[in-house]
Amino acid sequence: MNAKILETENVTVSFDGFKALNQLNFSMDVGELRVVIGPNGAGKTTFLDVITGKVQPTIGRVLFKGKNLRSLPEHQIARRGIGRKFQTPRVYLNLTPRENLEITSNRNKNVFSTLFSRSHPKEKHSFEGLLATIGLTAKADIPAALLSHGEKQRLEIGMLVGQSPDLLLVDEPVAGLTDEETYNIGELLLTLAQSHSILVIEHDMEFVRQIAKKVTVLHEGSVLCEGDFAEVQNDPRVIEVYLGQQQE
Ligand code: ADP
Ligand code: MG
């Protein structure tokens, strides 16, 4: 049996009696790239919130690398190795991509040495590698304000990776991107998936087709079904919940 990076056991999150998550059982293996889809209101964002500790389960538990995250504050969960990419890029616009990576990487988690030490040659090398991975070598030294929206997204993914998380949570990374930028983000996530466990939430079905190995469909706070892209796409229950949404 593969080791699990993440499991939820019967997780229910109630907001004044409304169950945003309803007895959610989910698990993914170490090293897996998983895509979670579902109509609006299915509970996708709440699912990420309950993993990162922003929201506590009303019932049930969340296990990261086999350990219960119950009652841990968000920053401690992050320190245990869960990194979250929010939908809108949060990069420092007046700094270059290289500087953005330097100030956010946790080479030794000491703010003062980050501010005052000269970078070690080996670290320089690793930033070059990261800049190449995110496709920003040629733009490494211009202000991030001059990057396109897609490039900013890639930079922020790079900043997340620089913190060496064991699990990356990525919320709707291609919303508002051009087809070409969407494709680039997909290729980047596929590259990162060779060395990370990644959980991606996404709406864009072309993008899901590009990156997905296994897809989980959420509906009304529970898992509706799971499978590869073709299985999920052809599942009558999935078609029904998506069509139901379009008719509203
Ligand atoms: P998704 O990301 O799949 O669109 P969400 O997780 O954002 O869905 O929301 C799931 C449901 O829970 C929605 O009906 C939403 O209105 C409700 N919900 C989310 N957060 C709260 C909250 N803080 N208080 C009350 N209801 C909430
Ligand atoms: Mg959402």
From TrEMBL:
PROSITE patterns: ABC_TRANSPORTER_1, ABC_TRANSPORTER_2. The keyword Transport applies. This is Urea ABC transporter ATP-binding protein UrtD. Keywords: ATP-binding, Nucleotide-binding, Transport. Residues 6-245 form the ABC transporter domain. InterPro entries: ABC_AA/LPS_Transport (IPR051120), ABC_transporter-like_ATP-bd (IPR003439), ABC_transporter-like_CS (IPR017871), ABC_transptr_urea_ATP-bd_UrtD (IPR017781), BCA_ABC_TP_C (IPR032823), P-loop_NTPase (IPR027417). Transmembrane segments: none annotated. The keyword Manganese does not apply. The gene is urtD. SUPFAM superfamilies: P-loop containing nucleoside triphosphate hydrolases. Pfam families: ABC_tran, BCA_ABC_TP_C. GO terms for molecular function: ATP binding.
